[in-house]
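Homework help board

Subject: predicted structure for assignment chain

Our instructor gave us this sequence and asked us to write out the predicted structure in token form, then describe one feature. I got the tokens but I'm not sure how to describe them. Can anyone check?
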Amino acid sequence: MWLLIILLFCVPIGGQVADPAKAVITLQPPWVSVFQEKNVTLQCERPLLPGDSSTQWFLNGTAIDTLTPRYRITAASINDSGEYRCQTGLSVPSDPVQLEVHRNWLLLQVSSRVFTEGEPLALRCHGWRNKPMHNILFYQNGKTFRFLPRNSEFTILKTNLSHNGIYHCSGMRRHCYTSAGVYTIKELFPAPVLRASLSLPLLEGNLVNLSCETKLLPQRPGLQ
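My token output:
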């Protein structure tokens, strides 16, 4: 009778342990696409570490002359569009937040440009200067998938890979207006690969290591 000693473990290739000292940017209002003239506040959330008293903000890699946890944009303009990061004296730099300021009649708003499967996805079809819209249609990859007669916002509570694609919306106010937007759902991790580590010839009593390997998203380094 063959006797094998088997060790089974799961290895996320390239995976990292979540850094508790990493800064995180939140938005108020919580949309990464806004109209011109809107006010936006970016908040740098970071752990409370001894001696950590100031915050540095970056726009497209260039330091902004603001040292407070809140960065306020009053009456946003096209020039305020770009990639924002923040960092405190003792924190790891935050992941980038790409803010876009638009000039249009209709805008599809979401809270992030990339969603990981399993996360909720809020969609808001928003009119210029809060003008009420009706007969709202939401599209995924060019096909209508939701109609709302007046309410312009709804949430997909738990996304999966079938929600991957290009989204936009249209609405009526005297005329029909159409937004633009590209938002993608990413898989949590690719299908695992089973690998075996053994020496040949395989004899009774040999040690065999089986590893279940995959690769985690950089945005979710602490995923188990």
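Reply (TA_rk): Your tokens look well-formed. For the description, you could write something like this. Confidence is low (pLDDT under 50) at residues 1-18. That's the kind of observation they're looking for.
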